[in-house]
Amino acid sequence: MPMYDYACAECGEFAVLRPLAQWRDPAACPQCGVLSGRIVAGAPAVSALSSAMNRAHAANERSANEPRSTRAGHGMNCGCCSGGRSRGRTRTTGDGAKSFAGARPWMISH
Known about the structure:
Low-confidence stretches: none
Strand content: 15-25%
Oligomer: single chain
Order of helices and strands: EEEEHEE
Structural class: alpha+beta
Number of strands: 6
């Protein structure tokens, strides 16, 4: 059963657990017994969600106004955005011979 919020003119706000079929009906104030109308008092309890759901909601809120595009015109490992290309494993000597850093020297490649 959901919990609905009501407001008594004399005593203030209170909450009552009621069946869905009675969502429109007024509820009796627990202090004075006067029938009171239903109000929408607050937002849903978003903090009761799991941390993964909270992160997803936060990401949606951040991207709601300014979505970030991954198609900015730069390819993977571009030099301007990633702080320069890292050197690969291939090393070239002065005479043009190539070697591979960390490779096994006894292996023959094709």
